[in-house]
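Hi! If you just cloned this repository, the fastest way to understand the data is to look at a raw example. We've pasted two of them here, unedited. The first protein comes first, obviously.
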Amino acid sequence: MNILAIDTATEACSAAFLREDGQVFAEFEMAPRQHTRLLPKMMAAVLAGARCPRSSITHCAFSNGPGAFTGVRIAAATAQGIAIALKIPLLPISTLAALAQVSLDEQGGHSTMVALDARMGEVYWAIYHRDVDGIACLRGQERLNKIDEVVVDDMPENGAGHGWLVGRSTWPASKPINIAPDLLPDAKALLKLAVKVGEPVDVDKISINYLRNQVAKKSRKA
């Protein structure tokens, strides 16, 4: 398979390409509100690095939320366009799963609690553990809560994501935890998840994982 992966669900923008021989080519940049401009350039760059034409893409993976409303929509619309043009399946991957994979790869350990700022004093969060292949696997379910509503019975070893900076003093802390608030999801993590656990979906059957009913409020920034 030749898989293109894209992520624009947070302040970071990234693209990665897995060539059929196993080589990975990736671009990543912290670029708030610049995703629309940067993503096409990044996709072109990873394909050029791999010396593969756009027509060689067999699957397109993308982060389907939760995350910034506009950012998630950019990745979804771009992936849909590629899928329609090339007649290929999509591999939607949770943004929190991608962040968890980054956390497990960079922080080590066997478990992580990932959290992204959802605005209005809320966080998107979930706990993931590492399976025998090193892949992030969800424990329980992904949630959207006010900080004081977050309940964790068994705190994992690590924490990642800027959600940890929201009302940090009120976060549950039953034991010491190694927190990396600067970690964000990226397309390389999406690739790893797409290969191991991704389920191909036809372009007309994809859905976005918003975790909230009201996704667009004037007080929110994309």
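Ok, and the second one:
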Amino acid sequence: MTHIPEQLYYTEEHEWARLTDSGAIRVGITDFAQDSLGDIVYVDLAEPGTETKAEQTLGEVESTKSVSDIYAPFEGTIVTRNEALGDNPELINTDPYGEGWLVELTLPEGTDAQSVLSDLLDAEAYAELLANEQ
């Protein structure tokens, strides 16, 4: 059974997002995505300072099965990336919603974070998406 935390927001490409205490939005891949990929062996993420558009590639995750692109769920600027994944890419497999996060983004000036997040899928809608894909 795939774990889908209620407090997160999701994309149809199987990324998750949540607002941090600092006001940045943390992004990672879902439990379903990491399970589908298998053992993750390498992660390549865009540098901090990189500006992204919605659905633009943020980087890629390489597993024993394939290489998959990671997409930005919305427009923003990468402020930090999870450097721990360089030495421990398997954190995505063991803790996709915690230590296995990928990047943190800030939104363009004047953009309301809650309205951006509410444009994504909530946990119930993401669970429906998964049910329809299987």
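That's it. A detail worth noticing about the second one: Residues 8 and 18 are 5 Å apart (CA to CA).
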